[in-house]
Every structure is written in C-alpha cells, then in structure tokens.
Amino acid sequence: MNAGLFALNVFQGGPLWSFWPMAGWGIGLAAHGLATWFSLNGDGLRDRMLKQEIDRLSGGR
Questions:
Q1: Which residue of 6, 8, 12, 42 could cross-link 18, Cys pair, CB 3.0 to 4.6 Å?
Q2: pLDDT tens track, the chain, 61 positions
Q3: pTM for the full model?
C-alpha cells in the first residue's frame, strides 16, 4: 500500500506527501504491536499460549 502511494507521488510530481500516510501507518502499527505485547504479559497468558503451541507442534505428547 505504502509503496503504491509513494510510486503515485513520484509519478505525479510535486511535494513529497506520501511520507504522511506512511508515518501514520507506522505509528498505528507500533501502537498495535505494543498493545498486543503488553496484553500477552498479563495473567500468564503468554506462557499458556506458548505451552499450547509446543504441545500442538509435538503432536500432543
């Protein structure tokens, strides 16, 4: 998406406006990542999810 906006901006000419959507996208992505990271640290959820994944990959043994 961002590459398309940048290409459109370059082919269209004029001032570099494609930076602003990319900056907004990056801020949103960082906020979502932090929210996900901090929500997994509560009440042992991360450990439970990790154990479930290990059990699933080992065939339930």
A1: 6
A2: 889 999 999 999 889 899 999 999 999 999 999 988 877 666 677 788 889 999 999 986 6
A3: 0.57
